[in-house]
Design brief:
mainly alpha, disordered N terminus, single chain
Length: 182
């Protein structure tokens, strides 16, 4: 029994799908965390309810916007257009391989997308802190705690999801290589 060495079967994840799944997990974690934050703020200190709501909304938006460049790039690179391939000066395709882009040619774009996402996360988190500090009238320590907890929560969900999906993808590829080389 041999598996196909190119493409993925219907049950195997791809790198592009991993980022979309992670985006979905972050959105669900945002929703669950927002509800938990509102409940805790209501039960503990109602004066923190509005700032907690603002931080919850802002943190989720920052997390989703920060993931967007890498998710978009990973989807785009999964099926590169011939215009994208032709526009890359450092990519020379052999005859009969049109549509395949060497991994090294895309790595610079992936790094750029990752750095853009990281920059968006940093700038968004600082902007959220400053907005809350100057507009909501809470002590900076409380705002820093709220923003910090949300930052760690959203980033942890993203990293854990991507690590698990990457391990599954790696395992799937190794399994496929064993069957195709045997």
């Amino acid at each position: 029994m041999q598996a196909h060495s190119s493409g993925s079967t219907s049950g195997e994840p791809t790198a592009g799908q991993s980022f979309l799944v992670a985006l979905r997990h972050v959105a669900l974690a945002w929703l669950a965390g927002s509800m938990l934050t509102m409940l805790v703020a209501y039960l503990v200190d109602t004066a923190v309810l509005v700032p907690a709501f603002v931080v919850a909304i802002g943190s989720g938006l920052v997390a989703l916007v920060a993931m967007a460049p890498v998710a978009w790039f990973s989807q785009r690179s999964g099926h590169p257009s011939s215009a994208m391939v032709a526009s890359r000066a450092d990519v020379s395709l052999a005859p009969g391989v049109a549509g395949d882009v060497p991994e090294s040619a895309l790595s610079g774009d992936l790094v750029s997308a990752f750095m853009l996402g990281t920059t968006l996360r940093l700038v968004g988190t600082v902007a959220l802190f400053l907005l809350c500090r100057y507009q909501l009238g809470l002590q900076p320590e409380k705002i820093a705690a709220l923003v910090g907890v949300w930052y760690v929560w959203m980033t942890s969900v993203e990293v854990v999801t991507l690590a698990k999906l990457n391990a599954d993808l790696h395992r799937s590829r190794n399994h496929r290589q064993i069957w195709t080389t045997g």
